[in-house]
Predict the 3D structure of the following.
Amino acid sequence: MGNKVSQQTTDKATVETANSRFVFHENSILYLYVHDNLTIDVPEAQQMVQNAQKIDPSGTIHLLIICGMNNDISFAAQRVFASATGFSRVVFMTRNQLQAQVGQFLVTMMRTLKSNYEFKLFYDIKQAEAWLLRP
């Protein structure tokens, strides 16, 4: 299940994993594309957090999560994400009503668990990017 790291250009790095693809763009946003039909539990969540921290060790990661279809995130995995360090802002992009409901639950969880970073839900990628890049 190793990770394949490749430098596509001088401005962008891509990391392919068994369950996702990370792309770090020149705009300093780390995009996380989660594969379809994936159940995310603690090991997957920990690996995703570790991969993000390796790709962008700045301590102020701006992460944009684009979930695949039919993804499920366990409560324990949500706690892993909520307690992660090294992030400053995280966006959960939704494509349908079910993802919006899951995303809203995650927003509530992050607030309840007093996450170390800001977390928002968006339907429009341009608005999400603008929020992530705001001062």
